[in-house]
Structure prediction request, 234 residues.
Amino acid sequence: MFRAIQCTDHTSLQMFSKTFIGMGNNPAALLCMDHIFSSPLKLQNLPLSEVEALLSLYFNYIKLLNKLQHDKSLAQGSDHQRLFGFQVLGENCYLVPGHSILYKKLTGKSGSNKKGTEGHTCGSEDLHRGITQLILARISNCTETQDDACRGVHGFSPCLHLLVEEKCDSPDGEESCSFHHIKSEELTSDWYNTRLRLILLQFQILNSARYGNLDVKRYVLAHSTRNTCKYSLI
Prediction:
């Protein structure tokens, strides 16, 4: 897993994520998925089945983050302690490492470049507050990043210029076209059902992430039925 993280091997990290989810090892699964989804997904012209697999994994990521947020355990060996690496010093006393993102969230400063910075000592209330803020920010920022990636492919709509005119009119060629290039014989009921699942999955992600931007939801709905060429898909 750590070698895959070091090499930015997203294919292996996806496999590890699914394995850890199946094992109930949520901290390890979150660590893998956090490295996958910390940057925008490259969805252009991917088969819809691969897009569905990626967004399904992202949905699991959001669900696990929500579960972690509602978990109140800070004990040694808890999911919080394993993921954030704080030390349990005693009853209601914890030490957050100075090189961690949780340290920066609690103190408003980074200790990563300061020699001798051991960490930040705090009680359970402050620790819960920092963890909750960190998780909510992660959910919001990652969802915005992946939503932008989905917008970039126009709701996974097919390139209707290619379908109708048998030629994509993108000024920089087919590779720059943000619509899905698909042959007419591939427009089957399976393709339609997969695309419908993708649209519903986007709404599930937005709701689970509490990403209440109405413009985003209108965009998903609009591009699920019509593309910029004004051809209706209904």
Notes: The longest strand covers residues 93-97.
